[in-house]
Amino acid sequence: xxxxxxxxxxxxxxxxPEEALKICGDRLTENPDDSLAMFVAAYALSKGSKWGIAYxxxxxxxxxxxxxxxxxxxxxxxxxxxxxLEEAEKHIKRALSIEPKSKPGLNNMALLRVYDCRxxxxxxxxxxxxxxxxxQW
Length: 137
What we know:
The chain is mainly α. It contains eight helices and no strands. Helix 3 packs antiparallel against helix 4 and helix 7 (103-115) runs antiparallel to helix 8.
């Protein structure tokens, strides 16, 4: 059976991360270098706040697919949740260099600026995000 990363992602998103992890684990047994399977597995793990494991999977995925915006943005999210703020900034900047008008990336940068006690910068990134989609809030 072929790996369907989108289906596994939907499972994780809809509250069934265990099933998503099983699908991704099976795929990674077949192909340990499948960055999509690593990305989805990390997403499923993050749903259960398993930030360290998700972080390591995403680091490996980023080494295989360094130009994938989503990987770097989710790495930043893991870093924020593990209070690795300098590393989070590096990954957010990488994500935004790939996809400058990404709402999730801009939102992550705004959040990071709140944690850095830089409210003016947080507002700047939040406004940029709202310019892309004023209905998101």
